[in-house]
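Structure tokens
________________
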Amino acid sequence: MELKSEFLNEIKNRGFVYQDIDIENLDKIISKNNITGYIGFDITSDSLHVGSLIQLMLLHWLDFYGHKSIGLIGGGTTLIGDPSGKDETRKILTKEEIDKNIDNIKNIFGRFMNLNKDSLIINNYDWLSKLNYIDFLREFGSKITLNRMLTFDSVKSRLDREQPLTILEFNYMLLQAYDFVYLNKNYNCILQMGGSDQWGNILSGVDLIRKINKKDAFGITSPLITNSDGSKMGKTASGAIWLNKEKISSLDFFQFWRNVNDKDVSKFLYLFTKLPLNEIKKLSSLKNQEINEAKKILAYEVTKIVRGIEDADEALEIANNTFNSKIVDQRLPNISYNKLDIKNKNFTILDAIEKLNLVNSRSEIKRLIKSDGIKVNDKLYKNNDLSLSEYSELNEIKITVGKKKNGILKIIQ
């Protein structure tokens, strides 16, 4: 299907479109007029992680082509919890916890949307908190049937596994649909986008707009991104890959992308960078050792978008020094410790790695040592007593965990 609008062509060619509601009519409208579209983000943590990156990129491209993007922060809906894609009821956060999370997350949207122009960040608590529940149920509850809700995968899968689904969570779907109605009425928003797990919620919103506002509305879902091994995007053995710098360093963020599976490189270049499509096509054709160059470009481009060009330049430089030139870069994570404690074996390799935050647990460090996963000054660490005493006369040592993580122990003489 040939699309006329620049925005829809861009996101379709890059692999963002999984399902759509009436994309042909949307294309006719959007090729002639600027529109407003939104994506909702529940604020269950004090940072978004890379699992939200595909949605942020969609808002970016909508903004880039002159349309109005709305990043809807779910200050109200997070008080309830979205059942979509969940095996169990989410932990209920307090209003204070949610407000604190919102303050930490707001800045990230400015990297993707021009908030100084038309695009907006809006909190749905502003209108959901003012609803009269009885009036709301009378006007909107009668327009969405339980019969239809029960056909949505997000609900059906939970019930099929005999997992509890609370009345609170059922209300979530109604409230998200109402969000779309509210934005349509007050901001002339005609498009909702989201992950494929939001398909049922988006359908409900479109249906409600047609019944209540007597207008056409549209929806697009993107594929839920997994790694080539089927694991969830953004989750690693050491935890989530956060977008906020306070949660994970720009170097570790860079290295996450630098070390993705070869099979994922092409897909991630299309989705998570702004490189021209013809350039991505060339990079996607690289094989064997040459694909490492494509990975470096991927890591640099994503870090530049999320953290800014200065952080991307610094992460690239540190990575080149550490992994290519074997230079001990002083910007690596580092700690200082007393020579005497190291010499007397009171401060071990376990203590050093733990304090450098390179591994989550001491048992995991022991496992890595046994499987030849730890190096000191680029040589395999093999000491059964876990000591660092043989290095106590040095001014500093470099500790490497796996292929990705490095830190410096400075020894105070």
